[in-house]
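I had to read the description of the data format several times before I understood it. The format is easy to grasp once an entry is in front of the reader. For illustration, here is how one protein appears when written out as sequence plus structure tokens:
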Amino acid sequence: MIDKTVALLQAASTGPVTLADLVDRTGISRPTAHRLAVALEHHGLLERDETGRFRLGLRLLQWGGETDPLVSRAQEAVAALRDATQVSAQVYRRQGDSRLCIAAAEPASGLRDSVPVGALLSMRAGSAAQVLIAWSDASAIRVALGTSAFTAEDLATVRERGWAHSQGQREPGVASISAPVRDREGAVVAAVSLSGPIDRLSRPTKSQVAALSRAAQRLSSG
């Protein structure tokens, strides 16, 4: 089984691949290749791109010492965002049916919303999930709304004002605001967030939203 796992990772090392590609390149049966690929995805060793193809995951890249351009910028960005707002800051990227925390920074004191790097959180709740879904295609939005804590009207508001807000969706007593990070073509590839106790973020201030927007712009232009 270890040999088959290594073969799948090697097959994905040259760039995004479909399940059929994995089968062709490794000679592993389709059911076994699918089962192993999904398990590797669960552990962050593989992930899927926007078309559903498999590629090497963030955790494997971190273990190997390679640098993902977004990851390398994200940690510096969340540290600056935390310092500017004195609340927790994170960057999330979608991974299958979850969102993966790829950078996080906590304030030195006071109440925190601790989300460790590498944590997989639900796409069903939270402002970051709203951002990652809001600019998806119509069919993906319909599927997401079937099980989410937010509505189509919420997503329309996110697209209109350019950022999302949630209170107690992911965890009771926790609120967050998130903004989209875009690639050079304008596609949303991540969400940068501020999160903390509801009494700090129930009514986001102009300065909090401005700091969040600046962080999103810096990450998008990198």
